[in-house]
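Morning. Coffee machine broken again, so started the prediction first thing and wrote up yesterday's gels while waiting. Chain of 153 residues, entered below exactly as on the submission form.
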Amino acid sequence: MVADESPTMSYPSAEEHPDYGVIAHSEYGIELCAIEHWVEDGLHVIRAADFDLIALDEDHDKAACKFVEEVFSLVGALHELVMHGEPTPSERELWVLLATPILEAGNRDQEAAEQKRARRLIDFPRFRRPRGDHSPAWRQSSGPGKLNQPSTA
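Came back before lunch.
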């Protein structure tokens, strides 16, 4: 969540009348959670709308970053509880609610990295071979980590 910190932007000044919004992945638009935001005693307060989590800072963007860091910490703690403890039904439900968008964003990041790597392989520069040499320079390997060398025949 990024906001314009210009002097013309106004923020709500009380918990009774917060702004409502979402924390979403900036590239994919995947929503992490609904939030409420207001300014109290010079601090930007960002509170989760559906669970108990609050982050504060004098700077709006820093408060949003702190909030996201706290969500990730909460997901980590809930993950440990779900995998190795006995979570309550509400803890398990919150873990699923928060972990699902995080995993979706992670999957998209991984897909983007694989596509980038594939493009680098496709764009691999072509090297000139001596005239008359029409044999391929690369061949399928006969086993893991082994390359067949081009024949010299």
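DSSP finds two helices and four strands in the chain. Going to sketch it on the whiteboard this afternoon.
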